[in-house]
Amino acid sequence: MTVAAAHARRMDGIYRSQRHFYDLTRKYYLLGRDRLIADLAPPPGGSVLEIGCGTGRNLIVAARRWPHARWFGLDISHAMLATARAGVARAGLDPRITLAQGDATDFDPQILFGVSGFDRIFMSYTLSMIPDWQAAIGAAVDALAPGGALHVVDFGQLERLPSPLRAGLFAWLRRFDVTPRADLEQWLRVAADARAASLAFESLYRGYAWSGVVRRD
Known about the structure:
Blueprint: H1 3-18, H2 22-26, H3 33-40, E1 47-51, H4 57-65, E2 70-75, H5 78-90, E3 97-101, H6 109-113, E4 118-124, H7 133-142, E5 144-155, H8 163-174, H9 184-194, E6 198-204, E7 209-215
Parallel strand pairs: 1-2, 1-4, 2-3, 4-5
Antiparallel strand pairs: 5-7, 6-7
């Protein structure tokens, strides 16, 4: 079994039941998602991809926030995509949101979506769950169109929170196979530098979340 197939199987196992109440619980601790969506600002008619789209919650919010853009979602979990497709249909956004199953570390935008590159790509709390997350960053930047931007938000190192709270949160996240990436900024910069792109990076909410934007010329 390949690494990607094993990861897909693992994600389906985790979310087969959780997907039904995922959005009700995650809104309390996946901080910075709506801030990321508000910052996307895709150009008129632009294409936007969410990698690790999960239940489709972010795509639905973003498609309503930016009605002039075209929206795409990629996830490795068949279970999550089933929930996402149902949610998109209920929201009446089928004509504007296209979903596909795929591996964040190795995907072809043209084959999956008929798009050569995206004006915006975003990854919200996904890198902390992808085994080869460094490759996922590189694949995302490679899928940007000229002038495009990759927006990332994920767990930080909780660096300005009290030590007992920090230890407790890390222990709790491990129960869900979530690993905050201590060198996230470093690898975003590696990907940016290798492709002559720029990086803006910041710590949010006392280090609870980290945010990065990679922009291609």
